[in-house]
Amino acid sequence: MKILVQREAFDLGAEVAAMSQGRTDIGAVASFVGLARDMNEGSGVQAMTLEHYPGMTEKALAALVDEANARWPLLDTTVIHRIGRLLPGDPIVLVVVASQHRGEAFAASEFIMDYLKTRAPFWKKEETLQGERWVEARASDDAAAARWIEP
Predict the structure, then answer these.
(1) DSSP label at 136?
(2) What is the Cα–Cα distance from 96 to 109, expressed in whole angstroms?
(3) For 17, 38, 74, 101, which has the most beta carbons within 10 A of its beta carbon?
(4) Any idea of the CA torsion for 7, 47, 55, 71, to the nearest 10 degrees?
(5) Three-state DSSP class for 88?
(6) Residue 64: exposed, middle, or buried by beta-carbon count in 10 A (0-12, 13-18, 19+)?
């Protein structure tokens, strides 16, 4: 498991190569890259600043990965989330999941992202032509995470 919170950009290809190098037990690698958009809630976004609580954030991300490992037979996982000021088109978050089969890799990567959006302690502030604004939690993110709750 690799969990990083950093200012620097990441390289998807390098992360997948590092995860799979020398491994013959991996049959599937699923990845997700989230990018900063230039539009949100009907307004143009010029930049976004992501803040976090050091130590707490990494612990929360590790707990999400642990929960994914409890649900699916995963072989490795990488989660990288950027902080600081980002421009539209910049990569924000990377999730890479390795397993023996594609179904587990796809499901676990989606689960991690859905829970990351609702459970990880990140705060987003957007810069728009109308000024700065904090991004509020979305009901759609809560709904996406709710589908993973086991009865």
Answers:
(1) P
(2) 7
(3) 74
(4) -100
(5) coil
(6) buried
In 20-35, which positions are buried (b, 16+ CB within 10 angstroms) versus exposed (e)?
Answer: beeeeeeeebbbbeee
Tell me phi and psi for residue 89, to 5 degrees: 95, -15
State the Cα–Cα distance between residues 49 and 127, nearest whole angstrom: 8
Per this entry, what is the length of the chain? 151
Separation between Cα atoms, residue 137 and residue 118, nearest integer Å = 8
Cα of first residue to Cα of last residue in the chain, in angstroms, is 28
Rounded-to-integer distance, Cα 85 and Cα 108, Å: 28
> 34-93 pLDDT, tens per residue?
999 999 888 899 999 999 999 999 999 999 999 999 999 999 999 999 999 999 999 999
- pTM, to two decimals: 0.93
Tokens of 105: 């890799």
Q: What number is the average pLDDT over the span 126-148?
A: 84
Cα angle 51, 91, 106; round to 5: 105
Backbone angles phi, psi at 30, to 5 degrees: -115, 140
